[in-house]
Specification:
single chain, about 350 residues, mainly beta, Jelly Rolls, 2 domains, 8-stranded antiparallel β-sheet, 7-stranded antiparallel β-sheet, 24 strands, about 5% helix, about 45% strand
């Protein structure tokens, strides 16, 4: 099992959406705000599928993916499928070619189409509730002969298509694209995951910001005040206050407070950073658990513009067991300059 990415949309605005490896079509019709959140935090709105979408690069080519996302059809208007090239959810290959398209149809069923707009099959009617949240999950397999589209709404299977031709481009999936349902319907999205091996059920993505400073990994400098207060803004304020270092192998860690948690499927560590000098710099995400430092994957070269460097840990690297509130609040999270 590999949890490839998770997203709660809580720590950036629509103007920063590309910082998290998301792409967008016409930002005028995309908005990220607490107004569109399923719970607390933020969610994202797509207001017009003809020009407004967000697209996630999952970072690797996969022939099969499982995904989940909270969805709210925020209007009583009837979805309009008259523009078949504009799906509510689109599955694309690395060249940006549609492999599978999902449409909400006029009877509030979900239709699965191949990349050339031929219907593969549809659910029963009224599986999509109007003007309230539901959790949509999908398994998509790309193949000319054994393709699959399985959909679940609130953990109940509503569509199961097997032995399909879902190949319209290459043999892989690289992007998932979210739009509205056309006809000027406003759609809200939140609490998104992608896995390559299993469904996770209805999930909530929560965001925790630093509230304490590591006494072991504490080499960076604060631009002003306390280090944790320079990096604790839920919405990054970039160069307003920050921590910095230009020294190879410098490490900086922080603690978090989570409060009571349910089952933790995994965590994603996000470092929002930029390079302000000539030469190549890279960082490695860092977790300190049970007194030991564990490094993630070294980033690409840090650019002069702020980007999020993110990595998922499904389990505590110290014992390979699931994360819990106790483990998370005892651990420290940060980065090391490795190049």
């Amino acid at each position: 099992m590999t949890l490839l990415c998770i997203e709660g949309f809580d720590h950036f605005l629509e103007t920063d959406i590309s910082d998290k490896n998301w792409l967008f079509g016409n930002i005028s019709f995309i908005d990220v705000s607490s107004t569109y959140a399923r719970f607390s935090g933020q969610g994202v709105k797509s207001a017009q599928s003809s020009i407004g979408y967000i697209r996630k690069n999952i970072g690797v080519d996969k022939s099969t993916i499982y995904f989940g996302i909270a969805v709210k059809k925020a209007s009583a208007l009837t979805p309009d499928y008259s523009t078949a090239d504009l799906p509510f959810i689109g599955i694309k290959d690395e060249a940006g070619v549609y492999q599978v398209k999902l449409h909400v149809l006029a009877d509030l069923s979900i239709g699965a189409y191949d990349g050339s707009n031929s219907l593969l099959g549809s659910s029963s009617s009224s599986v999509v509730p109007s003007e309230r949240w539901f959790y949509l999950e999908g398994k998509i397999t790309i193949s000319a002969t054994v393709g699959e589209v399985t959909l679940r709404v609130n953990e109940t299977q509503v569509l199961n298509l097997t032995s399909q031709d879902t190949k319209n481009g290459t043999d892989y999936i690289r992007y998932i694209e979210f739009c509205s349902m056309y006809n000027d319907l406003e759609v809200h999205f939140d609490d998104f995951y992608v896995d390559d091996a299993q469904f996770h059920g209805d999930c909530r993505i929560r965001t925790f910001m630093p509230d304490s400073i590591s006494t072991t990994n504490n080499s960076f400098t604060a631009s002003a005040g306390n280090k944790n207060e320079c990096v604790d803004e839920t919405l990054s304020n970039e160069d307003t206050d920050y921590i910095y270092s230009s020294t190879l192998n410098h490490k900086q860690g922080f603690g978090i407070t989570t409060g009571a948690l349910g089952t933790v499927k995994g965590i994603q560590l996000n470092n929002h950073c930029r390079d302000d000098a000539a030469g190549s710099r890279k960082i490695t995400p860092l977790i300190r658990s049970n007194g030991t430092d564990y490094s993630g994957t070294e980033s690409d070269a840090i650019t002069s513009e702020y980007l999020f460097e993110s990595e998922v840990w499904e389990t505590d690297p110290d014992d390979s067991n699931p994360w819990t509130q106790t483990k998370l609040e005892a651990a420290e999270f940060g980065l090391e300059i490795t190049t």
